[in-house]
Protein 1
Amino acid sequence: MGKVVINFFYRILYWYISKVDKSAEVTFMNYGYSKDNHEIQLEESDVIDRYSVQLYHHVANRIDLKGKDLLEVGCGRGGGLSYVNRYLSPKSATGIDLNKRAISFCRNHYENIAFFQGNAESLKFEDNSFDVVINVESSHRYNQIDKFISEVYRVLKPGGYFILTDFRFQNEIEKLNDQLTKSNFNLLRHELITPNVLEALKLSSAKREDIVHRLTPKIAHRYIKDFAGTEGSPTFKKFATNEFEYLLYILTK
């Protein structure tokens, strides 16, 4: 499925979720993280999204965020940034997403976070504005990754951190590695977390299927289950066979 089709699907999905998700059940749209079924300590209200939360924990906890200005590019419906802001205590938290309905949702549901609609490839922030930029499971939809990487570099303060995690087809990884290598960033860590994402998908599959069945029309179940990576779906099988690999990069300016 090409990026144009994927982005169109995302727009339709956000529109539909905003119409039917009256109880704000869907605040995360990532595949999650689990290692040997270890569970991090969470407040009761966050347990329902445990595996998606744990992906953010695994990613953002690599850097001490206390006292730092944080930007999430591709914040979606804001669940991840809300978790990071509440548990990891950055000085400030800002989220940006291309989808205006997602940003409207975030502004109505979260406190002490600034949310803006905007394009990852043309960030409307001044140079040297943030200490840390995170990007979780969003970059695979971008048309010009080089522009995105350049923009992240521009808005980061000297010595700032860029944390990128996302999946790619196996044959796309070399290209992404090359793009990051040719950027001005210094690579601190490169981690393959596909087994952990697959474990999370297995553990969260029942919850994902329940949401699909309750919130979406039956005619669309097959496609949305695939989008959600439920067990047995084509997306799940791609992770299981390593056709998809899930990667984590930590870089510094």
Protein 2
Amino acid sequence: MSLNFKPLSMEVMGDYNAMFDLCTDKTSDYTFVNIWAWSDERRYELALAHDLFWPRTGGASPALWAPVGDWNRADWEKTLPELFPGGADFERVPEGLALQWSGLFGDRVELEDQRSEWEYVYLAEELISLKGNRFHKKKNLWRQFYRSYESSYRELSAGDADEILEMQQLWCEWKSCDDIPGFRAENHAIYRALKNWEHFPDLICGALYVGENMVAYTVGEPMGGDMAVIHFEKGLGDYKGVYQAINQTFLEKSCSGFKWVNREQDMGEEGLRQAKESYNPVKFLKKYRVKWKG
């Protein structure tokens, strides 16, 4: 049996989300919002086989990702040899599935830690209260923002997409997005997500305003019931403390019902790693590169 891959489309979203809900170890890479947003960059394709969706990326660096569905019901001893008799490499495999395969197949699989893809998870209550010495610097910057500017917070909906993209354009001009491939790709991902907001009713979005001007925004979504994932967060550099302010205020006003906050991975960028670690993560959602030897 061979996999019949087709380009990602909105038509599969309902079926995909139903299978993603069955995964016992969810990571934000695999939410439909995420793969849709980044699909022009990564050229996602999906194949359906053995009651599982099999994602892969195309473009310059094609790669298989972990299958999406009910891992506990899958007959792995039949499925992997049938679909990949000559072996296969899988990227960004959530820890739960990687360990399941390792326990089942032993030395027929090899695991390689992908530290740059680990997702940072925080207690929402801690990022809202900012209590204690661990958050002293964050709280000071948060206070400076609210003391310095007459600001307000608004929850946003699909009708506000163009306004967010106007602020995103200002951010991109500040950061010279057109000259930096990573920023340019992210900017396009933000555009794809927000321009299709009507298809994503679970998106959570909020923004800070100084006067009538948007100065920061956050876009996220629920994952697994008790976790909020932050996909995009931007603030204008002219406003000191704006990132600390939008981080805390978005969670307090729009995500207070969640226990966990997932701020995704650092992609191996040292500055981003330091920034994410500075908020004191309480755990990581680990991922591995898995080599199935066939």
Protein 3
Amino acid sequence: MMSSPAAPPILFDRGLLRVRQSRALGLGAATFLLDRVAEDMAERLHAVLREFTEGADIGTAGEQVRSVLAGRVGSLASVELPDAESRGLGLAPDTLDLAVSALALQFVNDLPGVLAQIRGALKPDGLLLAAMTGGDTLTELRQSFAAAEAECEGGVSPRVAPFADLREIGALLQRTGFALPVTDVDRVVVRYDSAFALMADLRRMGATNILVERRRSPTRRATLLRMAQLYSERFADSDGRIRATFDIIWLSGWAPHASQQQPLKPGSAKASLAEAVKRLAPE
């Protein structure tokens, strides 16, 4: 008897994410990353020489993407990512020719499942274009917190979410059935007066710690002060301002279609590698 696949691990408290995003709106949302991604998305789609009539914006918080794509897509529905992964996205099969998502997929517990659902909702030759934080995002904050906790409290607690890297995302696109997958990274380095100014911006992004395994008790003042000191010592420029890295991973893939470029069949090459090497070798 075949066993059912294991459920994905629950890393993120998505209910808490919604609370944090609502709080961010009340504080006055910091949208500079989302604004950048939305403008970049519009430019990338402008380079695609085809019309999109039925689209969906998957999980993006805010109206930036739908605003910049107005007029580029006939209809762009807003689709929320559910708190419970088992609920699904509610997308009908073969109904979309475009799916976009901006800075939302990094907080999904079952990313392969979500990508597979998007792939199933795309018509043949439909496009997925998405951006998510990944790579070395907030590596400076992660290192500074880890060093401060190890020094002040004798242990380290999860502070910054684990981020996928470029190769993992590319492989995941292939695994979930996308053709012609492409990934690249846009590294954004933002400078702040202090680690506390960075943390205030993260609160206004709704991007503070939502890990299920996060520490529930408040961080000790001594630990916070030591973290800020270490951050300044290790990651400050000559003017005293600190650096914060945000790696934006861009991913795109197409629902397969007969018109797309296909890989060569094994053995169909007209010249052998051995012959090519022979021609390049010195006499």
